[in-house]
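Q: I'm writing a short methods note and want an example of a predicted protein-small molecule complex. Could you take the sequence and the SMILES for adenosine-5'-triphosphate and return the bound structure as tokens? Please keep the output block clean; save any remarks for afterwards.
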Amino acid sequence: MARGGEPVLETAGLGLTIGGARILSGVDLRVGRGELVGVIGPNGAGKTTLFNLISGLYRPTSGRVLLDGRDVTAASVAVRARAGLGRTFQTSSLFPRLSVAENVRLATQRRLGGSLSVLSFPRRGDAASAEAAEHLVTVGLTHRTDAAAGDLSHGDKRKLEIAVLLAMDSSVVLLDEPMAGVATGDVAGLVEVIRSINASGRTVLMVEHHMDVVLGLADRVAVLHHGELLTCDVPERVMTDETVQSAYLGTTAGSAA
Ligand SMILES: Nc1ncnc2c1ncn2[C@@H]1O[C@H](COP(=O)(O)OP(=O)(O)OP(=O)(O)O)[C@@H](O)[C@H]1O
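A: Understood, no commentary inside the block.
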């Protein structure tokens, strides 16, 4: 585990069995504060399941999830979110008919405990609106403020989802395949946004199939295979690990995850 002492996020013996099928088993993962850890693995390896267990969408059948040293295994998604755990999904979780600014402002208002109505138009200088505007600067979406979220490109939607996580003040951010569907020309900009939220101190756990993105961003790479964690190590060691290479047999380790 790199950066910081105690892990900010930890799974211990985490497992999920559904109808007799072992989806995930014995996953011990420790993520240090401020670390960016990439999660890779062949299709069906259990990456999204791991995210579902960490974020509280699923309850594990074995093991624990610790956030900042606190056992949150039985805590709801909402409790974990209030404790600083935020996530994005493979499919967008934005309000498509609301504007970019409104999506971020709603998240800010929810955190600040204010009205959740988008009809409560902000007063000039309204704290939630001012803060939302800052987050849109951070993710580079100021030119799309009034656009409907549903009209954004995939890349801009991912940026907006990250702005929503910033508005929720998430200190540990789970990104599920942020580059999925993103146009080639938009990848570099999105990579920079992820790099900048990590540089500002947020811990990032990222499932991603684009290996060049993972290798360019991650401090360490966790490899899942058949529901088990093969290794979690610095990219150079992971890419030369024989067990990892054999897990990818039939694909090239440089182009698949
Ligand atoms: N709720 C569920 N019920 C039954 N099986 C499930 C459930 N959720 C996941 N699985 C199975 O668990 C395995 C792991 O799925 P998961 O979506 O976590 O893999 P993944 O590594 O994210 O795959 P991909 O890269 O294709 O997104 C798959 O075989 C999937 O069919």
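A: Remarks, as requested: Residues 184-199 form the longest helix (16 residues). The longest strand covers residues 7-18.
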